[in-house]
Amino acid sequence: MWVPLIENNEHLSPGADYFIQKNLDQLFAQSVEIDTILLACTHYPLLIDKLKSLVPQSIQIIEQGAIVAKSLANYLERHPELESKCVRNSRIDFFTTDATADFDAKGSLFFGKPIQSRHVTL
């Protein structure tokens, strides 16, 4: 349910709180020993502030983005030959096989600023 809330830009609405809290209640009902929540979906970091406000402070929330970034940094440190293949001061292009307006709206949520994609056919 969380992904559709995010993709429809409803994740910050008061109505979303009901569904998120309901899912959290179901999760915590499974065990009193739960002490960590792993956000293992690319969408879920957009819920981090809401989740922090809804779960007890004793619960650790781990985002996969930080784990992936740390792993990538480690890999790049071990492979300095890749530095020469990295492009600096380049541009970012977005391509989609979906409707560009929909992709742009949803992509902007994740990118943090407006984007403009180009449609491609595969």
Quickly list its features.
alpha/beta, Rossmann fold, two-stranded parallel sheet
Describe the SSE topology.
Blueprint: H1 2-7, H2 14-29, E1 36-39, H3 48-54, E2 60-63, H4 64-78, E3 94-96, H5 100-111, E4 117-119
Parallel strand pairs: 1-2, 3-4
Word description of this protein:
The two termini are 30 Å apart. This protein has five helices and four strands, in the order ααβαβαβαβ. The model has no long low-confidence stretch (mean pLDDT 90). It folds into two domains: 2-86, Rossmann fold, CATH 3.40.50.1860; 91-122, no CATH class. The protein has 122 residues and is α/β, with parallel strands linked by helices. The chain has helices at 2-7, 14-29, 48-54, 64-78, 100-111; strands spanning 36-39, 60-63, 94-96, 117-119. Helices cover 46% and strands 11% of the residues.
Whole-number total of structural domains? 2
Number of distinct beta strands: 4
- What is the residue-mean pLDDT, rounded to a whole number? 90
CATH T-level topology of the largest domain: Rossmann fold
Write down the CATH class of the largest domain: Alpha Beta
Roughly what percent helix? Answer: 40-55%
Major sheet size, sense and barrel closure: 2 strands, parallel
What share of residues are in beta strands?
A: 5-15%
Describe the strand arrangement of the main beta sheet, using strand numbers.
1-2
Intertermini distance: 30 Å
What is the helix/strand order? HHEHEHEHE
Whole-angstrom Rg: 18 Å
Give me the CATH architecture of the largest domain, please.
3-Layer(aba) Sandwich
Poorly predicted sequence stretches spanning 5 or more consecutive residues: none
Helix tally equals: 5
